[in-house]
Amino acid sequence: MSDAPERPQWKTLDRDLNRISQLELATAYVSRPLVAPGIALVFIVLAGVGAAVFLGSAPTNFVVVAAAAFGAYMALNIGANDVANNMGPAVGANALTMGGAIVIAALAESAGALLAGGDVVSTISKGIIDPSGVSSAEIFIWAMMAALISSALWVNLATWVGAPVSTTHSVVGGVMGAGIAAAGFGAVNWPTMSKIAASWVISPVLGGVIAAAFLAFIKAKIIYQDDKIAAARRWVPVLVGIMAGAFATYLALKGLKKIVKIDLEIALLIGATVGGLSYVITAPLIKRQSEGMENRNKSLKALFALPLVISATLLSFAHGANDVANAVGPLAAIVHTAQFGDIAAKVTIPTWVMVIGAFGISFGLFLFGPKLIRMVGSQITKLNPMRAYCVSLSAAITVIVASWLGLPVSSTHIAVGAVFGVGFFREWHMERRLKRTSASRPAEKRIAPEERRRRKLVRRSHFMTIVAAWVITVPAAALLSGCVFLVLSAIAL
């Protein structure tokens, strides 16, 4: 009887505890989306504080600190958007988990930026603005600041929408818009801009055609052979040799600028040597790995998985070496102009600026990268290791061809264009097989046009979104940069 009065008290306590636990769950659910932006904000603040400590009591300290913070913001957006192009196909093909892809990409991008990133970068991003047209160093600083802010905001918006865009083109648009606002239309090198505009079409088309050609080769020589394993033993080492040679040439051209300057002929010779050695090493390994495998496509996927992972890693290293310098170019220009008071066409990138770029890319990839990795890897078209391998191989070869032709191309456009190329080739190939089947068996039921449209292997909604984002990247970043420059100049000048 003595326990009876206590029961209502225990019930009340249980109800209160249940309400508290529900409140904690609701709080955790609401706050979870804020964790990544919070960590990103801490990194941006630390970049600014680190710049202040490193530079000491310089007279233009505040401007450089602000530029370092915006440079960190830009680096975060590169990691969130640009790196997905390298790792997306490997994740979509299930050759890598999302966590494994993020770790490998973060290490490879950082190593590429810090070990092989260019010592010198063009302050006016590929020569699109004439520095002599800018009247003073102070105006130049604010123009570069506007370019940095606008390009970062545009890439951030594109990531939020789910469209992989070119970071380099965003910076080009930002520099052009700020240059026009600061010095007029005459300051723009329009022939160079026309080449960049042409690359909007050339990059994805060339990447798509090369990827489709390799996929057609793999289907004809390996997948549709009666003895798939024997065909794989013959041709997979050849494809690995081509991949190794292509990446050796790519890295010699783009990734070793900090160590030694290599022209295209020497780079091709290096690539041929590395490709031949890779074939000699790979042939017995593939033969040993394929022993006891069943004669079906699942076995082929296993043979292509490791080369795909290696190619994705090399793409990330080359991207870190090549594109990070372009992205931190405006920050390097601001630091140089603030310290020395002159406007230089090319400047040396301080080590601490490259550190901000390298670590920012890693944080951006870790915090925000999975969205675009899934988009590129699985939401445009379905990829397996063979198709994804064609995408990675196409990215390296297209850059080499573009360098030979002297065309400014975007690694983003190439990689995503290669994904589209693989998807559209599969659609064309499926349509051709359906026509052959219909011709040989006319009595069978034909597929209705509505069902045929539903079976398209490339998602048209993503295709239109990405193409639209590519087309408007430069003008949108330019317009945004011009507006930001006018605001900054009204405040500071």
From TrEMBL:
User: Where is this protein localized, as stated in its record?
Assistant: Membrane
Q: How does it sit in the membrane?
A: Multi-pass membrane protein
Q: Which residue ranges does UniProt annotate as crossing the membrane?
A: 34-55, 62-80, 139-159, 196-215, 235-253, 259-281, 302-321, 349-368, 388-405, 411-428, 463-492
Task: Tell me the Pfam families matching this sequence.
Answer: PHO4
Please verify whether the record's keywords include Nucleus. Answer: no
Q: Which family does it belong to?
A: Belongs to the inorganic phosphate transporter (PiT) (TC 2.A.20) family.
According to UniProt, the name of this protein is Phosphate transporter
Q: Which organism is it from?
A: Phaeobacter italicus
